[in-house]
Amino acid sequence: MKKVYIASTSCISPQDSFRSNGFFDEWKPALTGTDQLHAIEPDYKSTITDAGKRRRMAHLIKMGVSTSLDCLTLADGSYLIPDAIMSATAMGGLEDTEKFLRCIIDNGEELLNPSNFIQSTGNTFGGQTGLLLGHHGYNVTYAHGGYSMESALTDAMLQIQANEINNALVTGADEITATEYEVMRKMGFWRSGRQMGEGSNSFLLNSEKNGSLCELAAVNILHETTPGQIANSLEDLANSNGLKATDIDLVLTGCDCDKAAEKEISARFPVTDYKQWCGQYGTKSGFGLWLGSQLLSRGIAPKGNQWEQTQLKSIAIYSEYRQNDYTLMLLKKDTD
Amino acid sequence: MDNLVEQLKQQIIDELNLEETTPADIDPAAPLFGDKGLGLDSIDALEITMLLEKYYNIKISDPKQAKEIYASVNSIAEFIKANKN
């Protein structure tokens, strides 16, 4: 089967991660004392240069379009036009949805702002990216809760493996809004120590190994699990990709509330929590994938509270949301 | 009339989210739509229609009129002056 490689990445997160090595300069402690981790956003005038297009874009769309374009930027400043665009978002354009609903209430269902309606749908940042690139090919958005990111990645991998396409841009993004935070607070969602996060993570997947960061060997989605299943599934994932469980050098974990599964994994594999840096959001596993691909390509790994120069060969990313959505991804430093 | 023009400029900036435009940047006689002037589009036309209803309680009853009314800030101001209750 054709291998799939990560050719480039781009990340906007609550960390100094966009077009910058800042995140890896020194160990960043978990952000504490707040239950909202807002993204550190770039100057959007430099990422979306057309002011006319930019003015209608809400926060989520600006993040999604910016990482998408950044991921496709070639050395001469032009953009690579991908064969396909796959986007992922758990909640879509919440800011515009809220504005539109507020407008419905305030104006008695009349005088509704068309921009907020147009921009509120989940597929807007994928669509806007396609429009800005002049891309007329496959452009699909996955709004599948806690496994939206993995669904989009699976689509891209299957199409590359089936020779339908050679490359694909995959972007996952979600945003924090004050209303969502408040609604979730009333539901008691943040009482358990969760931190709300946001960000956008883009990946150019390619069938070509040359110049790639690493291989994206597998993406698995599991729903209901039984005790012990997650760690066993991780072992199966290694075995089905020509590795032993002990070959997995590191598991980056994005656990939500399944403490038993978290314990199982940390008992059998070396782990580092990626969610401490990005918070909880539907497409958070995109941050884990960005981090894993960066560690493999930079030849560094977490040790204690610092980055250590060491060449890892394989990293798994485990993510869980509300004991319902469990996902596993496997990255390999392809040395063949 | 001058006050109305200045007020209208600010309302257009706010409602259309023209984030890098100031009232001083808008020539009240310049075209609002097309390649010249502000370069607004059809969605903006809808938003200006809503703006007129929201702030001035004026409805454009004949859509054919809109092209003429929305030609510039001055023409919108004249329309408001002529139709405001």
Write the layout of secondary structure elements.
The complex is a heterodimer of chains A (336) and B (85).
Chain A: E1 5-12, H1 22-25, E2 36-37, H2 44-47, H3 51-54, H4 59-72, E3 84-88, H5 94-106, H6 114-120, H7 124-133, E4 138-142, H8 148-161, E5 167-174, H9 178-186, E6 196-197, E7 199-206, E8 214-222, H10 229-239, E9 250-254, H11 259-268, E10 271-273, H12 275-278, H13 285-298, E11 300-303, E12 306-309, E13 314-321, E14 325-332
Chain B: H1 2-15, H2 42-56, H3 63-69, H4 73-83
Helix pairs in contact in B: 1-4
What is the alpha-carbon Rg of chain A in Å?
19 Å
% residues in beta strands of chain B:
under 5%
Order of helices and strands of chain B: HHHH
What structural category do the secondary elements of chain B indicate? mainly alpha
Helix share of residues of chain A?
Answer: 25-40%
What are the segments of chain B in which pLDDT stays under 50 over at least 5 consecutive residues?
Answer: none
Short structural summary:
The complex is a heterodimer of chains A (336) and B (85). Chain A is an alpha/beta fold.
Describe the structure.
- The complex is a heterodimer of chains A (336) and B (85).
- Chain A has 336 residues and is an alpha/beta fold.
- Chain A folds into two domains: 5-206, Thiolase/Chalcone synthase (Peroxisomal Thiolase, Chain A, domain 1), CATH 3.40.47.10; 216-332, 3-Layer(aba) Sandwich (Peroxisomal Thiolase, Chain A, domain 1).
- Chain A has 13 helices and 14 strands.
- In chain A, the strands form three sheets. Chain A has a ten-stranded mixed β-sheet with strand order 4-3-5-7-1-8-14-13-9-10, sandwiched between helices. In chain A, strands 2-6 form a two-stranded parallel ribbon.
- By secondary structure, chain B is an all-alpha fold.
- Helices cover 55% and strands 0% of the residues of chain B.
- Chain B is built from four helices and no strands.
- Chains A and B meet through helix 3 and helix 6 of A and helix 2 of B.
